[in-house]
Amino acid sequence: MNPQAGFSVRAADYAVQQQVLHGVRTRVFVDEQQVPAALESDALDPLSHHVIAMDAGGQVVGTGRLTPERRIGRMAVLRDWRSQGVGEALLAALVAEARQRGWGEVSLHAQLPARDFYARNGFLPEGALFEEAGIAHVTMRQRLDGAMRVSTPDQAIAATAAVVHRARRRLRLQLQCADEAWGEPVVLDALRRFATARHDKQVQVLALEANLMALPAATLALLQRLPSVFTLREPLDPADSNIVTAALSNDRGDCYFRPMGSRLHGELSLDAQARAQVQDELFQRIWERSSPCNALRVLGV
Q1: How are beta strands 7-12 and 49-55 bridged, if at all?
Q2: Are 191 and 222 in contact (CB under 8 A)?
Q3: 12: number of Cβ within 10 Å
Q4: What are the pLDDT digits (tens) for 202-229?
Q5: Residues paired with residue 234 on neighbouring β-strands, in sequence order
Q6: CA 217, CA 14: separation in Å to the nearest integer?
Q7: Which 8-state DSSP code applies to residue 284?
Q8: In whole angstroms, what is the distance from residue 225 CA to residue 268 CA?
Q9: How far apart are CA 280 and CA 110, in angstroms?
C-alpha cells in the first residue's frame, strides 16, 4: 500500500482480472513500444503471480508478474503514473513474493532504458545485450539468500547505485581509490536525490585526501555544495591508512564490500544487517581515530 502517493499495490487474480491486466500491457507495450500484439501475452500468464497498482478510484495503472521460471516480467506502468514510485512498488511486491516462496534468486530481462531503474533496486546486469521483440535487453539478477558477486564495471556501478538509492538516512563510504562509478549518472543522481531529501540525512566519507580529490568533478562539486550532509575524514594512524579494503554501506543493511579497494571486484549484500554491522563497526573505529578533511573548502570545483 502507498496511500500517500495515491496508489496501492496488491496481488491480482489472473482468472478474474486478465482483461484489465492485458489492457495496461497493451497500452504500454503494443501502443507505445510497437511490440507485436501476439507477443504481449503467452502461456506463462495463467501460471504466474501477478500484481497490480490501483489509483484511489480503483483504476489499474500498473502491473507486473512473477513466472514459475523465477523471472520478473511484463512490468508496465501507464504514462501518467510514471516517476511516481509505482514501478518500484510493483517490483518490491514481486521480489517479496519470490522471497516468500523461498527462492534463492530472481531474474529479469530489462529493456535497456530501464536498466538503471532495476540497478537502483538491487539487480545486477550480466552477459551481453540481446533483442526481444526488436528491443535491446540485458539480463539482470538479484540473489535473495546471500551476497551477489560483483566482477564487472557495470555490476560495480549497479551495486553502488543500489546501496545509495536504498539508503534511508545514512551512508558510509570507505574509499580506497579513484572510483569512477561515482561519476556515472545513475550513481550521481541517486546520491544527489539522497543528499537533497527533506529529512535528516548523513553521508560519512573516509578516505585519504589523494583518493578523495581523484573523485569525478561532479561528485566533488556535490560534496562541496552540501557540507552539512557530507562529513569527510582522513585516517591518521598508519595502520588505518594501509587498510586495503573498501566499502559502501547504508542504514538498511546493504553493503558493497571490496576486499581490494583498488579493484572493483567484491560482493553486494542486501538487507544483510549482520554483514553490514561488521563493516559499520570497523568503519566507526577508524572514523573515531581519523581527522577532518578540509580539502574541499579550498578546492575550486
Answers
A1: antiparallel
A2: yes
A3: 20
A4: 999 999 888 888 889 999 999 999 999 9
A5: 291
A6: 50
A7: H
A8: 29
A9: 33
pTM above 0.90, yes or no: yes
- Type of residue at 116: D
Residue type at 97 in one-letter notation: E
Rg value, the chain, Cα: 21
Greatest C-alpha distance within the chain: 66
Bridge partners of 76, per DSSP, are: 63
Query: Nearest Cα to 50, choosing from 28, 68, 32?
Result: 68
C-alpha cell at 274: 549482520
Are the CB atoms for 263 and 156 separated by under 8 Å?
Answer: no
Q: Write out the three cell numbers for 5.
A: 502517493
Cell of 151: 566482477
Q: Distance between CA 3 and CA 295 in Å, rounded? A: 45
Cα(293)–Cα(7) distance, integer angstroms: 45
Give buried/exposed letters for 77-97 (b at 16+ CB in 10 A, else e).
Answer: bbeebeebbbbbbbbebbbeb
- Cα-Cα-Cα-Cα dihedral sign, residues 192, 5, 59, 75: positive
Instruction: Using DSSP, state whether 273 is helix, strand or coil.
Output: helix
Measured CA to CA, the distance from residue 255 to residue 9 in angstroms comes to 28
Q: Which residues contact 140 (CB under 8 A, 6 or more apart)?
A: 107, 108, 109, 110, 115, 118, 119, 123, 124, 125, 126, 158
Sequence-distant (≥ 6) Cβ neighbours of residue 80 within 8 angstroms = 61
Q: Which residues of the chain have pLDDT under 70?
A: 1-5, 297-301
In 3D space, the residue among 231, 91, 83, 100 whose CA is nearest the CA of residue 170 turns out to be 231
- The SS3 of residue 123 is coil
